[in-house]
Amino acid sequence: MSQASVAQRLRAGRSSTLTTQILLGSLSLLLLTVVLGGVLFTMISNQTLDRQYQLRALGIATTTAQMPEIRSALAARDPQHIIDGLAREITAAAQSSYVVVTDRNGIRFSHPDPALIGQKLEEPVAVLDGETHVGFDPGSLGRSANAKAPVFGRTAR
């Protein structure tokens, strides 16, 4: 082999090594971009879905709180025990996991677990401030988007 062909092979080897490095660098950058884009898309999608579930729960809660039947039964301390039946109907119609109605003291008038009806909530009643509240709770049925809405009397707001 002549010296010229050896030098030519060395240059060709360096050139293909540099080409390979550039190709691998470009592919790595592309892979990193795709992975980061996928992670960001997943995070944003999850946040959007969480917010949509909260707003759906808020719609169910405010509608339930505004029902005249719920208002009057709650004001009368539910002597005919109709609140639980109404809550079950709302749950079925809205295709939600549950609807719980409580009084100002946190006593449950409805719950998916009948044994908890008449029992006090573990947490403080959030809507005593007159505002609605949304969030996620790791409740007895697992993590769930929930909303709480105050029930006002006939003359309130």
Strand fraction equals: 5-15%
Shape summary: rod-shaped
The total count of strands amounts to 2
Give the C-level CATH assignment: Alpha Beta
Number of helices: 3
Give a topology summary.
Blueprint: H1 3-66, H2 68-75, H3 83-94, E1 133-139, E2 142-148
Antiparallel strand pairs: 1-2
Describe the protein's architecture and organization:
- The protein has 157 residues and is mainly α.
- Helix content is 54%, strand content 9%.
- The protein has a single domain (3-148), classed as PAS domain (Beta-Lactamase), CATH 3.30.450.20.
- A two-stranded antiparallel ribbon has the order 1-2.
- A hairpin with a 2-residue loop joins β1 (133-139) and β2.
- It is rod-shaped, with a radius of gyration of 31 Å.
- The mean pLDDT is 89.
